[in-house]
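hey
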């Protein structure tokens, strides 16, 4: 059985071709002179995904059984925190770098 570091290394090595293909796709996509609206829509999709990840993991934590493994809860909490940071970072990309006048209204009050 592989230890965690060996397992991660194996996944990295086994999927190297996919990682390279993904990098090439991202490079090609962003090297094109895309209209701002398309870029904003692209990042809005990413932002929604990050928020959904955060919400789903948080619900899993909230609904965990009383006898749930504390270490697993700790790891899930860290992942929920990471997803919250990803959500904030993608949102900031849209707000600060992609909209000329910061005119996006995220939520109705
Ligand atoms: Fe994420």
């Amino acid at each position: 059985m592989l230890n965690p570091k060996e397992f991660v290394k194996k996944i990295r090595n086994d999927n190297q071709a996919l990682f390279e293909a993904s990098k090439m796709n991202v490079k090609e996509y962003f090297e094109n002179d895309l209209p701002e609206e398309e870029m904003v829509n692209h990042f809005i999709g990413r932002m929604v995904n990050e928020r959904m990840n955060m919400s789903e993991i948080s619900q899993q934590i909230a609904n965990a059984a009383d006898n749930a493994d504390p270490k697993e809860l700790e790891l899930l909490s860290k992942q929920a925190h990471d997803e919250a940071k990803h959500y904030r970072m993608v949102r900031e990309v849209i707000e600060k770098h992609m909209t000329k006048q910061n005119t996006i209204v995220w939520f109705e009050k």
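Helices lie at 4-14, 16-31, 36-62, 70-98. The radius of gyration is 18 Å.
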